[in-house]
Amino acid sequence: MSQLRPSAQLVAKLITNGVAKLVISKNIKKVQVAEFASDYFPDKISDEQWESLLQSNSTSSLLNDLQFLKKKSIKEEKDLLKKENKSGEIFTVEQSILKNQEKYDQGLNTYANGFHQLMTNPLRHKCMISITQAHKYWASQRSEETPHIIWDCLDTINSKNFKSKNIIGRQLNYVISENNSSTNVWPMTFCNFNVKEIEAQKFIKNSLGSYTNQYDYQRVMPDLDPRSAQLIIPEGKKVVYLSNKARKYIDGPLDADYYVATASFDKENESIRMARNANVEPLRLPIKKYVKWQAGSQYLPFSVMTSVLKEVFENGGDWSTAFHNNISKRHLRTHEEQVHISSGRKFKIDANKIRNGEIVQMMEDATMNMK
Questions:
Q1: Where are the domains of the chain?
Q2: Which CATH class is domain 125-281?
Q3: Which domain of life is it from (predicted)?
């Protein structure tokens, strides 16, 4: 077993911040047991990743986070290979610009962004697409003909679960991309998002890739606002706070100026708390009224929720059509249909669950008598 451990400075920092020394020791031991027992384990763990792992209170969550880190490292390796040129060299963006500038200064053909451009179809050029999307976004924001969506990021930014933060960040990236490329662009804001805070900066760097794209200067992105939703929304505007935990639901055509939703999995009723802080009764989408949900948790990804709201706004209140056009078909199939389609995949998932259960048990047994 390798001596995979966090730095002494990190351990001292966590103890100073009130994390029990026994919890840290147990989690280090659990990670080492997982490394020994699992064939799907990250090759290295940074101190930033260790910081979340060492504060985990659940063995199964700890194992899931380790497997997620392995999955992430595999993806990063594949992305790195794509950037490798024929000679085996790897260039950063800055190095590529300097190399292209040298060729351009010598009078050679230099096909790259900011230099010579070969455009067989100017309308499909990425820069032109970004400019067109920016025009649509600003037109929508200035005309106020469409509602404004506000995503509350407070709980996700402050979360210690980096796996959940990565998934939420990926969903927000999808929302941004799909909104910009759609024909009916809606203005968006990410509230409680203070870019001066360290946790917010980490979230952008590690999870919200739309804001770290090398061509982000060509794009118009949702505002990152440190204020809460109630401080952003002007007086006199109609607001709906969305929550899957609410008792009442919205129905018919959309008539609100602003829709506010939590950018989290809402496991701890964050959406209810968000609405209470604004002194507003939350409403849920009328899924149960219009959809016969067959399988899986009744949860809509952010991009699906946004698409449903947009379609209902466009079609004048036809929720049934909007739901059935956007919800994944796997949630609408009967159990028999689902088993017929995914019997092989289910067998693999069940085998992984059994194996993970055995590893979790080994991790807990190894730390049972630690004091």
A1: 8-83+354-367, 125-281
A2: alpha beta
A3: Eukaryota
